[in-house]
């Protein structure tokens, strides 16, 4: 017998075994549409992934699998499945997907994208206890109060002349100012120099993180830069690095010159430099870690926060009865002579449910994004190690099985007996705007102190006239990884009272 038939049969055997293994494996994956070679299901996905997933899941059920080029993903929008994935299997899904842009821009040292290892655990503790813990947040209260006063005064000036205001821009400046002062003691809305550059860079980074890079998902394009992506993110990285290097070096100089007696509230840079200089720290922090954390906070904490107030305000303008009821609550609890402050929020239950309802319909981060660290069995399905997990919060908030009249803005639903227990802290799987489990958002407390107060102060002092001919705010979304409004919110503030800060 010659060797040729033997080689032929051996190859056939190996090939069949491989095909059978692939079929067996794919049978155990959650259901999915037919995939095309190389691109997988890319042809079924539009610019807003959460919209595309929403449409597909109405056909393929509460847990479906999807191929984004060469990358395998699973998608769910069911609260029960989410609970099984992110509570029962919290450790398995405690990692995130990264991308070439994220790796470069965050010095491959990001906290938000770090795997669940000693570095992430150290930073998680530092972030929740020190950087965004209750003591630090209290220390920064004057910054938040001051910025809110600036915003309200600015709106008052505009209301005197009857001029329109781009609320989107103003809210973004407001949240940017708060984060950049907490971190670096600089205000991002100043003109020129570091302040302006910081704001521009934050915007560019958020944009590029939200864009789709074909080289990340189709392996044949891995080494090519067909969209000019790499060139762009490398340029942003160079500018961001030089800005932060400058700020850190100046601060180090100041710290050396500082006399012991000079007492000032430490910003986050001071706290981090203390850790960096501490020889006994359990993790040796580097300058790159500090720079990456600033980028994490700038990108994770600014437009999410401004977007929340913007969507809620837009809903109130389109629902005058809800607005009126909220204003009545504020008038009763706070009155019209002083401005709402953070300590009032616990006494403003209607404002709180307005924020929840807004999160339900407009989650600022519509898809939670995790990656499986090992194989995971969910029901009869196997989710293989390395699979991306997308929890579609946007779709969850629109599910008629979970919510009555899901497309209607009805804050009262959270006052009803069946829903009154639901909060946003990640324990109620129907409403997860800040995520859940160990990778849940560490900025939750800051956001939930700042955002209801800001919304309440704005509607306490003003009614907002829309400039569109029909007097209605357009509620469409712009495509991207977050869910910003398609059109900036532009309206004319009309003063309804003048609390003491404006006199
Ligand atoms: C309305 C405001 C905000 C919303 C809706 C929001 C939402 C989220 C969501 C959905 C996640 C992913 C959670 C998960 O995977 O389970 C997240 C993570 C994160 N957020 Fe926020 N966030 C907000 C404000 C902030 C603020 C103010 C900061 C910081 C100053 C911040 C810093 C972070 C960081 C660092 C992570 C990554 C945590 C990790 O991977 O361990 N966020 N946020």
Descriptors:
alpha+beta, coiled coil, 18 helices, binds protoporphyrin IX containing FE, monooxygenase activity, globular, oxidoreductase activity, acting on paired donors, with incorporation or reduction of molecular oxygen, three-stranded antiparallel beta sheet, Cytochrome p450, 503 residues, four-stranded mixed beta sheet, iron ion binding, Cyt_P450_sf
Describe this entry's structure for a reader:
Helix content is 50%, strand content 8%. Strands 1-2-7-4 form a 4-stranded mixed beta sheet. A 3-stranded antiparallel beta sheet has the order 3-9-8. It has a two-stranded antiparallel ribbon with strand order 5-6. The protein has a single domain, classed as Orthogonal Bundle (Cytochrome p450), CATH 1.10.630.10. The N and C termini lie far apart (103 Å). It has 503 residues and is an alpha+beta fold. A hairpin with a 2-residue loop joins strand 1 and strand 2. The chain contains 18 helices and 9 strands. The structure holds protoporphyrin IX containing FE (HEM). Protoporphyrin IX containing FE is lined by residues 111-112, 124, 132, 179, 296-297, 300-301, 304-305, 308, 364-365, 368, 433-436, 439-443, 446-447.
């Amino acid at each position: 017998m010659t060797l040729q038939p033997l080689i032929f049969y051996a190859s056939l055997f190996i090939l069949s075994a491989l095909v059978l293994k692939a079929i067996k494996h794919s049978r155990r994956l959650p259901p999915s549409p037919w995939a095309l070679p190389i691109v997988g299901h890319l042809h079924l996905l539009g610019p807003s992934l959460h919209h595309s997933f929403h449409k597909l899941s109405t056909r393929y059920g509460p847990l479906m699998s999807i191929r984004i080029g060469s990358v395998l993903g699973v998608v769910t929008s069911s609260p029960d499945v989410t609970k099984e994935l992110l509570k029962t299997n919290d450790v398995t899904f405690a990692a995130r997907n990264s991308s070439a842009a994220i790796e470069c821009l965050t010095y491959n040292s990001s906290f938000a994208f770090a795997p669940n290892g000693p570095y992430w655990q150290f930073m998680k503790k530092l972030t929740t206890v020190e950087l965004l813990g209750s003591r630090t947040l209290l220390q920064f209260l004057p910054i938040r109060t001051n910025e809110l006063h600036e915003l309200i005064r600015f709106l008052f000036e505009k209301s005197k002349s009857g001029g329109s205001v781009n609320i989107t821009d103003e809210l973004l400046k407001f949240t940017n100012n708060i984060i950049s002062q907490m971190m670096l003691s600089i205000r991002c809305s100043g003109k020129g120099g570091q302040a302006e550059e910081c704001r521009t860079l934050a915007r560019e980074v958020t944009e590029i993180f939200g864009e789709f890079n074909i080289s990340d998902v189709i392996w044949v394009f891995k080494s090519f830069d067909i969209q000019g992506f790499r060139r762009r993110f490398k340029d942003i990285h160079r500018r961001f690095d030089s800005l932060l290097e400058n700020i850190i070096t100046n601060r180090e100089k100041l710290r050396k010159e500082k006399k012991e007696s000079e007492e000032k509230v430490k910003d986050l840079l001071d706290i981090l430099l203390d850790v960096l200089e501490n020889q006994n720290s359990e993790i040796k922090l580097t300058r790159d870690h500090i720079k990456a954390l600033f980028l994490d906070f700038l990108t994770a904490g600014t437009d999410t926060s401004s977007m929340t107030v913007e969507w809620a305000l837009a809903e109130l303008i389109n629902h005058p009865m809800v607005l009126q009821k909220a204003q009545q609550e504020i008038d009763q609890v706070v009155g019209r002579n002083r401005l709402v402050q953070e300590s009032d929020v616990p006494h403003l239950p209607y404002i709180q449910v307005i924020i929840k309802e807004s999160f339900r319909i407009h989650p600022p981060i519509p898809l939670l994004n995790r990656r499986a660290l090992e194989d995971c069995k969910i029901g009869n399905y196997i989710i293989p190690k390395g699979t991306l997990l997308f929890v579609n919060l946007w779709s969850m908030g629109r599910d008629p099985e979970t919510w009555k009249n899901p497309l209607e803005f009805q804050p009262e639903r959270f006052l009803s007996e069946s829903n009154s227990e639901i909060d946003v802290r990640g324990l109620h799987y129907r409403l997860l705007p800040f995520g859940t489990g160990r990778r849940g958002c560490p900025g939750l407390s800051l956001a939930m102190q700042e955002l209801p107060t800001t919304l309440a102060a704005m509607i306490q002092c003003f009614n907002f006239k829309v400039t569109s001919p029909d007097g209605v705010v357009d509620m469409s979304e712009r495509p991207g990884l977050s869910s910003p409004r398609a059109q900036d919110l532009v309206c004319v503030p009309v003063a309804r009272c003048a609390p003491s800060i404006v006199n």
